[in-house]
Amino acid sequence: VEKKQKATILKIPKQRVNSYVDIRPFRSTQSLISHVFLGKRDDAFYNPATYATEYVLDKSYNLFNLNISQNINGNTDAFLNIGNIFNTAYTDVIGYTARPRNYTLGIGYRF
């Protein structure tokens, strides 16, 4: 009963798909391509101009990310992460900007 009420199912899409492909071209190299599909979903926000809650339909979207890591020696790895490869514009939370394409480059050391 509760799941059928509009207020309790906001932001929950009917479809959500997470997938990834893990490619290891060499023993010390790992490439991971991940994908997230989020279907369209109902959402609501408070509009201060009208003093009312407004209901909207957020569009569905696909996000692709790439992670590459290279083991340098037994304890040290170098990595490159590219988030939102195709720079997809999407709405996660109304009123807040979603992350555009972003990069992370680093080195990790395990003690």
Main sheet makeup: 5 strands, antiparallel
Which series of helices and strands comes N to C? EEEEEEE
Indicate the structural class: mainly beta
Strand order of the largest sheet: 1-2-5-6-7
Q: What share of the residues does DSSP label as strand, in percent?
A: over 45%
Shape: elongated
**Overall mean confidence score, pLDDT:** 90
- Number of beta strands: 7
Radius of gyration, in angstroms, nearest whole number: 19 Å
**Count of DSSP H/I helices:** 0
For the terminal residues, how far apart are their CA atoms?
Answer: 52 Å
The amount of helix comes to under 10%
Low-confidence stretches: none
Keywords:
111 residues; mainly beta; 5-stranded antiparallel sheet; 0% helix
Topology:
Elements: E1 16-26, E2 29-38, E3 41-47, E4 52-58, E5 61-73, E6 76-83, E7 102-109
Antiparallel strand pairs: 1-2, 2-5, 3-4, 5-6, 6-7
Task: Give your account of this protein's structure.
- The chain has 111 residues and is mainly beta.
- Helices cover 0% and strands 58% of the residues.
- The chain contains no helices and seven strands.
- It has strands spanning 16-26, 29-38, 41-47, 52-58, 61-73, 76-83, 102-109.
- The strands form two sheets. It has a five-stranded antiparallel beta sheet, with no helix packed on it. A two-stranded antiparallel sheet has the order 3-4.
- Strand 5 and strand 6 (76-83) form a beta hairpin.
- The mean pLDDT is 90.
